[in-house]
Amino acid sequence: MPFVNIKIYKGHGKKRKDQIASRVTDAICDVTKLPREAVWVVIEDIDPPDWYVAGKPGERMKK
C-alpha cells in the first residue's frame, strides 16, 4: 500500500488539499495499477516560519 506524505505551507484550504490528494492518488494508481483504496495520502500543514529554505524561515501567506 503506497503511503504519500505531503508537507505544505499552512493556509491552504480543504478544497485545495482535496484536489491535491485526489490527483496524487490518481497518479499513483495509474502507475501501480492499484485500487484507489490502497493509496493513503497525508497532508501536513507546516507553519511557514518553521519551514527553512537556504537557512531562512518562510513567510506566512497573505490573506
What does this structure look like?
By secondary structure, this protein is an alpha+beta fold. It has a single domain, classed as Macrophage Migration Inhibitory Factor. Helix content is 30%, strand content 29%. The protein is built from one helix and four strands, in the order βαβββ. It has one helix spanning 14-32, and strands at residues 3-9, 40-46, 52-53, 56-57. The strands form two sheets. The chain has a two-stranded parallel sheet with strand order 1-2. It is elongated, with a radius of gyration of 14 Å. The relative contact order is 0.29.
Keywords:
Macrophage Migration Inhibitory Factor, two-stranded antiparallel sheet, alpha+beta, 1 helix, two-stranded parallel sheet, 63 residues
What's the topology here?
Blueprint: E1 3-9, H1 14-32, E2 40-46, E3 52-53, E4 56-57
Parallel strand pairs: 1-2
Antiparallel strand pairs: 3-4
Query: Superfamily at the CATH H level?
Result: Macrophage Migration Inhibitory Factor
The proportion of residues in beta strands is: 25-35%
Count every beta strand, where a strand is a DSSP E run of 2 or more residues. 4
Helix content range of the residues, please?
A: 25-40%
Shape verdict: elongated
- SSE pattern, N- to C-terminal: EHEEE
How many helices in DSSP terms? 1
Runs with pLDDT <50, length 5+?
none
What's the main sheet like? Answer: 2 strands, parallel
